[in-house]
Write a structure and sequence with these properties.
The protein has about 800 residues and is an alpha+beta fold. The chain has 3 domains: about 1-40 and about 260-440 and about 675-695 and about 745-770, no CATH class; about 55-255, no CATH class; about 460-660, no CATH class. The chain is built from 24 helices and 26 strands. Strand 8 and strand 9 form a beta hairpin. The two termini are about 35 Å apart. About 45% of the residues are buried.
């Protein structure tokens, strides 16, 4: 085998152009396939570092319309869950709360998550330094110990990775904590910077996220059946926490990611696999052409005793050598390609715990891919040339006997297959690009340019009570509005488009309460509409005094107004939001905020349920009607809004020195770009277009090789034709007519595939599809590419001197 590789190297080094073209073809195919496989492997094979993650589940319910609701529970309900025999362990978390470091020169925003003391054993991930949380850190009925676990990133950022951090003190909002552990890099639950022990409260207004681990052998169906009556009892105790009708459906940790991204990844993997096949076809064509020139050599080998298997092994070794070189190049390419794919993925489309990299299993996949590619590429030449016609070849001492009908058929079949697959990829890319262009041209209903959303999380035990919180938000808004670079600013507690609002039930005066009506409720200031340039189409906006006291006055969008008052008389009607109730200390609301509100205005529709979904009915109420511990400032500036972010931070800090804004401040164009539809559309369009362009290039190279090979084999014939009086134009037409047959066959097969796989292509292109015009356009592109690829060798054929061609050997 070593001798075969050495001989192969000598043979390929004599024709470096063929070798480099073949290696480049395989490098592109293997690199793209390895890059996409890296994401698939990271998402599906080992996404979580936790102990037995397949037995960890989320508690969700489906309402009567099939919509999923993530279920939280009260302290008493959490304790009831712990008693169930179907669970091996039950822990709980209490959301994410942004704290800030105090007692230091520069305060730092610190997202925190509180967990029950048994969470360390529940997750089963040992600390990298120190220890995890213990039950003694949060004993039942007692205040938790002042200890803190650090995430790996916070430890690196705040302590510069100091290994002596255990035992040091960390002050968060003027409360001192002892650092007891540093978690490993892949522990990123809820993307918190620090983890604190959680005290379970009996307050029914405080709800916790349950962390559930099934016992070995317990199926999801059995667990759902046992939980159904218990959660129905929970719904009677806290009806506002559950839909009216529901069924329990436990969900694995990875299911949501597999549903959202898995389909796209599998389809993209299919696309890069086609690209790899086109690359393998190129290598086969090149090796067939090279084998034709070596038939005398192979005949002599056979004549002096080389067996058929010996010749096949030599030819397969040459193909494997090319594929190994292509695999090395593909691995290098995948290292470059993978960060680009990850950058284009939507936020939270893969678990942040997942380690997506070119790992040992991925490298093993690349090696296997190289071997398979080498075998596929070398099979046709190996079978074609392992049984030479010894008498004819040795006696002729000529190339005229080389090739033959079987070689031509193989070449033509490979070229036609390349064209068919390239046409399929081009149609998929055109559909994807068309869908993405439609998406970015979507009428938003608002102006996102020069506006940023600045998130402000109120710290624990800060600005409690309706009056204190109201004054604080008013002062924040006034300070930011006073900045000279600010054109306008408003408050949007939950109304930053294009996905915004609180989906909840509403009641319309005059309609039966039995009719279930829903709308997106948004808490905003009156400046919200001018900041986003959402026009008022009827009635009026609130004045400053009405916002300040949280008046029961509502504004609705056109969708809601047309649905319930199609004659255009929405102004003056009344609407009620039953769930608009205070839940201190987290949510402060005005008294009787859940009573009837008068509609005083109608505004134009603006996107509130993503970029593709229809606009939902929306109700806007003064933000002081109900204020949570989280709000956002929408700031419109004359120039780039992010350029004045530090000035906005300073203005916020001037109101409360301990208050920080969130780290991830974005302008509204970036909010759009991080929408799932936009990110998936961009990923699909970019990757499919890139794959299609490369496939088109490889198909052109393959076609050029086939025509060049055909011209070389017909040199004597063409010389005779020209000696008998054939013109250059006739020779050129003859070569192009022969090329057109298998090009048209490939186009026909590709068109049939495109039509048959249209539903798959539609999924591939995120819901978009292609038209007859698009199919005709990519077909024309392929015809032009084929004509250009065939033109050079065809022109060379027409320029052959007859006497030289007759002597060609």
């Amino acid at each position: 085998m070593l001798g075969d590789f050495i001989y192969s190297w000598r043979e390929l080094s004599k024709r470096p152009g063929i070798a480099l073209t073949a290696i480049a073809s395989l490098t592109l195919g293997i690199g793209a396939t390895t890059g996409v496989f890296s994401v698939i492997y990271g998402l599906l094979a080992n996404p979580y570092p936790y102990r037995d993650p397949d037995r960890m589940v989320h508690l969700t319910v489906l309402d009567d319309k099939g919509r999923r609701d993530w279920t939280s529970v009260t302290g008493a309900q959490y304790k009831a869950l712990r008693e169930l025999k179907i669970f091996e362990s039950v822990a709980a978390t209490w959301g994410t709360w942004n704290l800030t470091t105090t007692g230091e020169d520069l305060p730092d925003d610190v997202p925190s998550t509180q967990m029950t003391g048994n969470s360390g054993s529940h997750f089963g991930v040992p600390a990298m330094l120190g220890r995890t949380l213990l039950p003694s850190d949060a004993p039942d009925g007692k205040d938790p110990e002042p200890v803190v676990l650090l995430s790996y990133l916070f430890w690196q950022r705040h302590y510069n990775g100091d290994p002596a951090v255990i035992g040091r003190r960390l002050e968060l909002v003027h409360k001192s904590y002892t650092v007891v552990g540093v978690l490993p890099p892949r522990f990123t639950w809820e993307d918190a910077a620090v983890y604190l022990p959680l005290k379970i409260s009996n307050d029914s207004n405080i709800r916790y996220g349950p962390l559930l681990r099934l016992r070995p052998g317990v199926t999801l169906q059995a667990a759902n059946a046992e939980l159904q009556p218990l959660l129905e009892q929970f719904a009677k105790e806290t009806p506002d926490g559950f839909p009216k009708k529901f069924r329990v459906q436990l969900r694995g940790l990875n299911e949501q990611f597999e549903e959202h991204l898995g389909r796209s990844l599998y389809l993209l993997f299919g696309g890069v696999s086609m690209l790899l096949f086109i690359g393998c076809a190129n290598v086969s064509i090149l090796l067939l052409a090279r084998g034709t020139a070596r038939q005398h050599e192979l005949a002599i080998r056979s004549a002096i005793g080389a067996s058929r298997w010996r010749i096949q092994r030599q030819l397969l070794t040459e193909a494997l050598g090319l594929s190994v070189a292509g695999a090395i190049g593909g691995m290098i390419l995948s290292y470059r390609l993978l960060p680009l794919i990850l950058k284009w993925l939507p936020d939270f489309s893969v678990p942040h715990e997942a380690s997506i990299r070119v790992s040992a299993p991925v490298l093993a996949f690349s090696v296997a891919l190289a071997i398979v590619s080498g075998v596929i590429s070398g099979l046709a030449p190996a079978f074609q040339f392992s049984r030479p016609a010894l008498v004819h070849l040795i006696q002729s001492s000529s190339r005229r006997m080389a090739g033959g009908a079987r070689a031509k058929r193989t070449h033509h079949l490979l070229a036609a297959g390349q064209i068919a697959l390239t046409l399929l990829l081009l149609t998929a890319a055109s559909a994807s690009v068309n869908g993405f262009v439609k998406l970015i041209r979507t009428n938003l209903g608002y102006d996102p340019h020069h506006v940023m959303s600045v998130g402000i999380p109120v710290h624990e035990n800060a600005h409690r009570g309706w009056a204190d919180r109201s004054n604080y938000f008013s002062e924040l808004l006034a300070r930011v509005q006073a900045l000279p670079e600010v054109e306008a600013a408003g408050i949007s507690s939950n109304a930053t488009p294009p996905s915004n609002g609180w989906q909840t039930g509403i009641e319309i005066l005059g309609r039966s309460s039995a009719q279930k009506e829903e709308a997106r409720v948004n808490f905003v200031s009156s400046e919200y509409f001018p900041v986003l340039r959402i026009p008022l189409v009827g009635g009026r906006l609130w004045d400053g005094g009405e916002v300040a006291r949280g008046a029961r006055l509502a504004i609705v969008n056109q969708t809601l107004a047309h649905r319930y008052w199609p004659l255009g008389n929405a102004v003056g009607q009344q609407v009620r939001i039953p769930e608009l109730k205070p839940r201190p200390p987290f949510t402060e609301a005005v008294p009787q905020g859940d009573q009837w509100m008068q509609i005083i205005g109608v505004v134009a529709d603006a996107r509130d349920d993503g970029l593709r979904n229809p606009i939902k009915p929306a109700v806007y109420v003064p933000y002081k009607t109900m204020m949570g511990v989280w709000t956002q400032l929408l700031v419109r500036t004359h120039g780039s809004p992010l350029a004045i972010l530090n000035r906005v931070r300073a203005a916020v800090k001037s109101v409360d020195p301990d208050q920080q804004v969130v780290k991830d401040v974005r302008d509204l164009d970036q909010w759009i770009e991080r929408e799932d539809e936009y990110a998936y559309g961009r990923l699909s369009a970019a990757l499919l277009t890139s794959i299609s362009v490369v496939a088109l290039l490889l198909a052109a190279i393959g076609l050029f090789s086939v025509v060049s090979y055909g011209v070389a084999q017909r040199t004597n014939e063409l010389g005779i034709r020209m000696a008998l009086g054939a013109s250059k134009v006739q020779v050129l037409r003859l070569v192009l007519q022969g090329t057109a047959r298998y090009v048209l066959a490939g186009l026909a097969c590709g068109s049939v595939l495109s039509v048959l796989l249209r539903p798959v292509v539609s999924k591939w292109a995120e819901g978009s599809t292609y038209s007859v015009v698009a199919l005709s356009g990519v077909t024309l592109l392929l015809i032009l590419t084929a004509a250009l690829a065939a033109a050079i060798p065809a022109r060379r054929a027409s320029s052959i001197e007859p006497m030289e061609a007759l002597r060609y050997d």
